[in-house]
Amino acid sequence: MANPNRLARKALVMDSDYDGAADPAVSRAERALEQFRRQHRAQLPEAISWLTEYHAAWRAHPSAEAAQARLHRAAHDLRGSATDLGAPLVGRIAGSLSRLLGFVAKPPAALVEAHIAALRAASRPDADPQDPVALAVAQELEDKVAQAIAREAG
Prior knowledge:
This protein is an all-alpha fold and 154 residues long. The chain contains seven helices and no strands.
């Protein structure tokens, strides 16, 4: 077993320059995260494409539980990965769609359509995640989902 006094002295030395020692590691981690985002951001259009495809299948058979389940899973997965990919607005809208599909047995088709359209717009390469109109649309979608869930709960 190591001498506790030696370990304590080493810990004190490390703690005295913690910020200086941590800065390079933090910088490396930030660069790695940005590289990860750049590499995987290209997957965002593919995820939107899958979501659109699942939406078309659900729209063709809205009473089919499997179609709604696939659409729900795609929205849920997109919600989970969008923030990591540097697309927080996409994640927010996908989360709203995921809640709608997860808590409302027969979600209003127009509300699902609005989410899909908003996701397409928010995932464009030139989309501004802080655009006031985009944020207002996301808030309105969330409000409509909350109302639909409240009606479902009765």
